[in-house]
Amino acid sequence: MLTVCFAVVSLLYATVGQAGGTAFLALMAFASFPPNEMRPTALLLNIVAATYSTWLFNRGRHIDWVKLKPLLVASLPTTLLGASIVLNDDIYHTLTGLVLLLAAVVLIMGRSDGTAPDHVTPLWAATCTGAGVGFISGLTGVGGGVFLAPILVGMRWASPRQTAALSAPFILGNSTVGLLGTLYVGQVPSPQTWLYALSALAGAMIGTTIGLRWFSQAATRYILAAVLGSAGVQLVAFAAR
């Protein structure tokens, strides 16, 4: 049953360019995974899902690598720094959940006109954003797409569709570095990760195709907000148990 849940989560998140790290963590929390297995398992599943999504987005020429470069380069060292810090479980779940809920609110309240031109992203703003998102990503054990996406859409640095394409490679890079950081501090993935990875890959393959072919800009925006909000509620609820 848990394997099926991982596949469903991966499918839903992939429709908006996300890998599913936050929901993976929520599922593992409710399944009573050992705390030292949660971050590396989620990051490894992120790598599997985001690798396929990145390949598909890149093949379709949807990724703006010029826009992505300063965000990704600035995020990698701070992701490694954040991954080397181990938080108290309750603080970790509460902090991550509240950030996701805030991100969902920003998306819902922001403008949803996907036809409006994007603003040019200043280099300093992209660098600061990448560094900040990277640190939070490493600290929480997610790939960072759920934190990056609301900023890109809210600041109108990218359209919802373009944001989905930028999120996948951003998640891939940060999850890889974050996994190295968690392994360095002695956290290891679950022994069943290979099985969860297969289900996450299957979900990502279906979800990315659905998002590219059938979802409009507005639909992508609101589905992303729903994904963020549901994951945030799950994490806060778990911390409050």
Stretches with pLDDT under 50, minimum 5 residues = none
- Number-wise, the strands total 0
Would you list the SSEs in sequence order as H and E? Answer: HHHHHHHHHH
How far apart are the first and last residues' alpha carbons, in Å? 23 Å
Strand proportion: under 5%
Give the overall silhouette: globular
| Cα gyration radius (Å) | 16 Å
Percentage of residues in helical conformation: over 70%
Average per-residue pLDDT, rounded, comes to: 83
Major sheet size, sense and barrel closure? none
Structural class, from secondary structure content? mainly alpha
Question: How does this structure look, described?
Answer:
It is a single chain. By secondary structure, the chain is mostly helical. The chain has helices at residues 2-14, 21-30, 35-59, 65-83, 89-109, 123-140, 145-154, 160-184, 193-214, 217-240. The model has no long low-confidence stretch (mean pLDDT 83). It contains ten helices and no strands. α4 (65-83) runs parallel beside α8. The protein is 78% helix and 0% strand. The chain starts with a helix and ends with a helix.
